[in-house]
From TrEMBL:
Similarity comment: Belongs to the metallo-beta-lactamase superfamily.
Protein's recorded name: Metallo-beta-lactamase domain-containing protein
Entry cofactors: Zn(2+)
PANTHER family (alphabetical): 102 KBASES UNSTABLE REGION: FROM 1 TO 119443 (PTHR42978:SF2), QUORUM-QUENCHING LACTONASE YTNP-RELATED-RELATED (PTHR42978)
Domain Metallo-beta-lactamase: 43-254
Superkingdom per UniProt: Eukaryota
GO molecular function: hydrolase activity; metal ion binding
Keyword annotations of the record: Hydrolase, Metal-binding, Zinc
Alphabetized InterPro entries for the sequence: MBL_superfamily_lactonases, Metallo-B-lactamas, RibonucZ/Hydroxyglut_hydro
Length: 285
């Protein structure tokens, strides 16, 4: 279950959280034992990762697009009837306001194709997109060819998207399938089944001497799920499944793996890198 120890001159990634909108989530839709009527205002998170050695830049998830009225009509209806959103600044503005040109982003890694993670992908004209292989079927035919489609047909740019086949990936820590993306131990893309077909996470080194950060997409929608204090709630208005995940059993198994990940620092004796930053689906240790 251990994570690999740092090498001499270990490569790592500088990680910045980007503002990418907020979404209002009724707790009862996501966790058992929730206080009736309680709504959590959750950040729709996006992250900029910059490799400390080769300076390659990767954006993980794009949050909610500011002009959310331009999502497919089925999604706009969903936002108006099930969720509320507020987008003071989206991921695109966060990058530009931080001095990062969209043309300089090498990779955009999308954890999965749900609208509150995809933002506006069309703004990235040169980036290579990284997604789980099963995402490919979700956008075909897509909206507007399918007027009721939930995913735009141009969501993932043709010729610039890598659809990962996770079958031959190797284990790391508690996760059975991972890809050492830069081949230097700095950033691992994790197969994260359960939420939506093609769902992936990122495990990245955040310092040269032992820090890690885990970016979990929609693996869990509440911290009580990660601590195992609550379980996944059933009944989710507007969803096509019994809960917020397409495969509840696989989602629960993956949550347990993340729970194991939070214990690894103590196994390593890395007390100076405690589980110190908890913000929605971001876990740093």
């Amino acid at each position: 279950m251990a994570l690999p120890s740092p090498r001499d001159s270990q490569a790592y990634c500088d990680v910045s959280a980007l503002e990418a909108g907020q979404i209002y989530l009724p707790d009862e839709m996501f966790i058992t034992g929730a206080a009736p009527g309680k709504v959590t205002i959750a950040p729709s998170l996006s992250f900029l990762l910059r490799h400390a050695t080769n300076n390659k830049t990767l954006v993980f998830d794009l949050g909610i697009r500011k002009d959310w009225q331009n999502y497919p009509p089925s999604i706009v209806h969903w936002i108006n009837t099930v969720y509320r959103v507020h987008v003071g600044q989206d991921a695109l503005e966060s990058l530009v306001n931080g001095g990062v040109s969209l043309e300089d982003v090498d990779y955009v890694c999308i954890s999965h194709c749900h609208w509150d993670h995809t933002g506006d992908t069309t703004a990235f004209k040169k980036s290579t997109f990284l997604v789980g292989g099963a995402c490919q079927a979700l956008v075909k035919p897509g909206y507007p060819i399918d007027p009721n489609g939930r995913f735009a047909s141009d969501l993932l740019p043709e010729g610039r998207t890598i659809f990962f086949d996770t079958n031959d990936w190797k284990p790391i820590g508690p996760f059975p399938r991972a890809l050492d993306f830069f081949e230097d131990g700095s950033l691992y893309i994790i197969d994260a089944p359960g939420h939506l077909p093609g769902h992936i996470n990122i495990l990245a080194r955040s310092s040269r001497d032992g820090g890690w950060i885990y970016l979990a997409g929609d693996s869990a929608h509440h911290w009580n799920l990660i601590t195992l204090e609550s379980t996944i709630a059933l009944g989710h208005p507007g969803h096509l499944h019994e809960c917020a995940h397409t495969d509840k059993d696989a989602a629960e198994a993956h949550i347990h793996r993340i729970n194991e990940l939070t214990k690894i620092p103590r196994h390593f004796g890395l007390e100076k890198y405690p589980l110190c930053s908890i913000l929605g689906p971001i876990y740093q240790f």
